[in-house]
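A common beginner's mistake is to predict each chain separately and then try to dock the pieces by hand. The better habit, illustrated here, is to supply every component at once so that their relative placement is modeled jointly.
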Amino acid sequence: MIDGNGADGVSGGRLKAADNPVLQNIWDIVAMIPHGRVSTYGNVARAAGLARGARQAGYALRMTPPGMKLPWHRVLGAGGRIVFPMSSPQHREQARRLRAEGVAVKGGRVDSSAIVDLDEL
DNA sequence: TGTATGACCCTGA
DNA sequence: CTCAGGGCCATAC
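With all components supplied together, the output reads:
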């Protein structure tokens, strides 16, 4: 395995997002967020190894293929606020899901008590 | 190889 | 509290 090409499972050159270890790592972090709790992009990114890769966390979630069960709605922006615009369907979707889990959403923001620290996981 | 983009974050006015 | 600007890091073209 000196050439790098034809490494574990990945052969053919370009690395697909679904096979990207970084995204997989982020997905794993998001997937381990407990029910009824929420986290932030920066927090998740840091847990994935990216100290300032909050955007990458969002990128990973955006790259999430349909069919994958991932609690993306438990990931919020800094301060526990939803990053989506108020009039956006995604905002409503996320807020709806959070409320379904017992998380209070007010003005596009959730109670800071609902935010869980990565240290607790 | 370099430029452009983004489900972000922080600081200042 | 709201608005604007700059910074950071990885992916896409």
